[in-house]
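Recall from the previous lesson that a structure prediction takes nothing but the amino acid sequence as input. Here we apply that procedure to Capsular biosynthesis protein CpsH from Natronomonas salsuginis. The sequence below is the only information supplied.
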Amino acid sequence: MIQHGVELAVPFAGGVPLQATQGDVMQQIRGDVLLSSSLWANVALAGLSALLFVYMGRNLRSDRARLIFGATIMIPLVSISSYLGLLSGLTVGLVEMPPGHALGGQEVLSQWGRYLTWTLSTPMILLALGLLADVDLSDLFVVVAADIGMCLTGLAAALITSSYALRWAFYVVSCTFFIVVLYALVVQWPADAEAAGTSEIFGTLRALTVVLWLGYPIVWALGVEGLAIVSSVGATSWAYSALDIGAKYVFAFLLLRWVAANESTVGAAGNPLGPGAAPAND
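The prediction returns the following tokens.
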């Protein structure tokens, strides 16, 4: 059986199709050059990025700079684990599209593990940005919580097979959470970054994050999970992978490079007495 660029060797028993095993799915991923290359490219880049970031952060000493480094290094580490899960078939499955979907009644290869990756990695991106801008912890908590809600409702939208309308309902809820995140990045946090003295790099990273993150719901809507205007699983996977490369590794490199070169500014953020200052004794 061939489903949208992926040949699925699904076994039969008495004329009834059986669920494909992890091994079946893994072999089919390996056999699809477009799909497998979109995953292996991120495994390689995540591994190289992790090594590079460890080197870049080796001399950081201030608590805030080290916290930013800790959040940032988690981005490629989560990614490499996730992409290996996808390649192994562990976090990939067949989802039958509901009636009303362009591929209604057909089984589509769903990379649902990507949503778990985003649930763990995107809060690290927001944490790093929040620390860089020295935002209030309560505001940071709300934005990270909205981000997690965005990812989990996106996962629900991808996996629902009972109702086409409910897939889009969860998509709308996910986008609503996304608006909360965008509002913080575009409206609230820039003023905090200005006060912290990090507005220049924050503006660059904010623009990169907003532009690339907007790509994810667009890919979902146009790809096999949404309207299936792009019906190739491999093409959809490469679109997500390309966004991940920019939103994770390029983002993290730009952030750590700036933090390493401006550690005194980062360390002074949140300290009303300035860098290296200590409270006076009574």
